[in-house]
Request: fold
Amino acid sequence: MEFITGGNEGCSECGAPQTSCNHCGACCIGGGPVLRTQDERLIKTGKLDLSQLYTQRAGELMFNKDSLKMESLDTDHVKLKVEPETLRCQFLSPENRCEIYAHRPFECRSFKCWDEREIQAVYASDVPLCREDIIGGIKGLWDLVTDHHERCSYALLGELIRKVDASSDRDAMDKVCEMIAYDRSLRETLIESGRVKPVILDFLFGRPLSTTIVMFNYRLETTDGIDFLVSIV
Ligand code: SF4
Reply:
């Protein structure tokens, strides 16, 4: 979640200090909350379904608005899915009301745009929920997820991309394309086999590498069935 005001700027009409939510909806647009360990019960009790979540995997690059740099995540972040274009939370109604208010995640409950102290304490001391907390006990499935996480490691991807950047290393570029192809084919195979519902793939394996490769300033193009990387800077 993002701070919109950065402090208490008061009512835009009368200037009085804001002390409660005025349902502008701004904090629910721009990226959903990261689930915290307190939110595990929402999944266990069926209030949240895996199809409503996606994972930002450890190692993914995220923009840090404090350092103004892209930095890698040191652990998984499991998040509520958002509308792709607007980044609007899937549970925000057209009237800017939370449709799961009574069961909203811990970050949402701790966030007050007029007073940052509670959410800052959460960021500073609390632990994000990770995929292992949720499905670590499901043996065959967890093995598949960890195997994918190693084979499609963002740390390795970053190393390969640095070689591509430095010297247009052909071997490194091929390895990146192989990694993306493996990620894609695993998802396709699981869908075809009927073993996994397509809507939970982005929770299990994170977003497809063919999409997230843009965080390294490349996009994937395919000609005559052959993948290749194109720089977007
Ligand atoms: S769950 Fe509710 S409070 Fe949280 S971001 Fe979505 S709409 Fe907003």
Observations:
- The chain has a mean pLDDT of 90.
- The chain has two domains: 26-132, 136-231.
- The first strand starts at residue 53 and ends at 56.
